[in-house]
Amino acid sequence: MTESERFAALDRRLRAVEDRLEIYQIEGAYSRAYDGAKGDEWAALFTEDGIYQGRQLAGMGELNFVQGRKALSEFCSSSPVNCIHYINVPDISIDGDEATARANFTFRAFGTDSFGRVNATEAQGYYDVAYRRTSEGWRIRRRFTVYFERRQGTAYGYEPSASPFGDSNPPFDATAGFRDRR
């Protein structure tokens, strides 16, 4: 191998390392910006037409779909919860100016409803992410949230007053059945 070929090989290796580090930096900034409700900062991690969405699995309700930096910024800035992401190191594949990754995550969020009750969400899953090299550097082109498990709960707190028994029961209807809220 000639000296020129060695330098060219070294240059390719260095660029691959720099690309990978830049993508890792995006993932680190992703959590900090979203968890801090810094909408413009979070949106800047995406391409101009970037997409954040939930991946629809059988039996799930409608999930988030947000496209474009303006909408991404508003989505992040208007988050009704205080949250924290724990994102694992992504497994990245780079092919020229395109890259993909999968990163496992845990997400915890807390909010308060109009009655002052605390609502908590905990989710585990992974992000499937497509990146693109742009004039601004690497950016997220599309990000799917795929849930393994998601739990939500509300802490109702102690209610010091008695339940409203009333003087008698409502009229009995033997054909009414029951309400199943499981």
From TrEMBL:
Any coiled-coil regions, as ranges: none
Protein name (Swiss-Prot/TrEMBL): Nuclear transport factor 2 family protein
Domain SnoaL-like: 16-143
Gene3D superfamilies: 3.10.450.50
Chain spans, region Disordered: 159-182
A Pfam family: SnoaL_4
